[in-house]
Amino acid sequence: MPVFNAYVPANKFTKEQKKALADAFVLALHDALNAPADDQFVVIHELSEDNLYIHPTFPNMNRTDKRMIVTVDVSTTRSLDEKRKLTELVTKYAVEKVGIGQDDIALLIYALPLEDMSFGRGLLMPDDAEAMQKRTRQ
């Protein structure tokens, strides 16, 4: 149940571009972590200029006015190689689908134990047999 949060500048993306950004995140998740196609949890937060501060060139970057911070919560079961692949593909697919620059995404990955996650129904993931079966696509 990875959850993406994208903090983007207000009024820089159309509705279609925001949908494409969400699709890019989900596609990266599937390709990097073998997640099922319907494992989609994406929140896009639009922030005004006075609420989003990202330096355009630190460190040795060339960010545009569409620069953003993206966080993703994943389980602690994910390997370093999986996280590297996810980072690579989040950027690649966002560039391809939305047309932003490759330096425009600052990504933070937070690893949580499965016992700190719930899909709903008041059940933690380890207590939800159906959720545990669907963690990876077949």
Description:
The protein is an alpha/beta fold and 138 residues long. The chain has helices at 15-33, 80-98, 129-133, and strands spanning 3-9, 42-47, 68-75, 105-112. It has a 4-stranded mixed sheet with strand order 2-1-3-4, with helices on one face. The longest helix is centred in the first third of the chain and has 19 residues, at 15-33. The chain is elongated, with a radius of gyration of 16 Å. The mean pLDDT is 92.
Query: Could you describe the largest sheet, including whether it forms a barrel?
Result: 4 strands, mixed
Strand order of the largest sheet: 2-1-3-4
Helix content range: 25-40%
Report the C-alpha radius of gyration, rounded: 16 Å
Summing up helix and strand content along with how strands pair, one would put the structural category as alpha/beta
Separation of termini? 16 Å
Low-confidence stretches: none
Query: What is the strand tally?
Result: 4
Q: What letter string, H or E per element, gives the SSE order?
A: EHEEHEH
Helix tally?
A: 3
Quote the average pLDDT: 92
Content of β-strand? 15-25%
Silhouette: elongated
Oligomer: single chain
Summarize, please.
With 138 residues, the chain is an alpha/beta fold. The chain contains 3 helices and 4 strands.
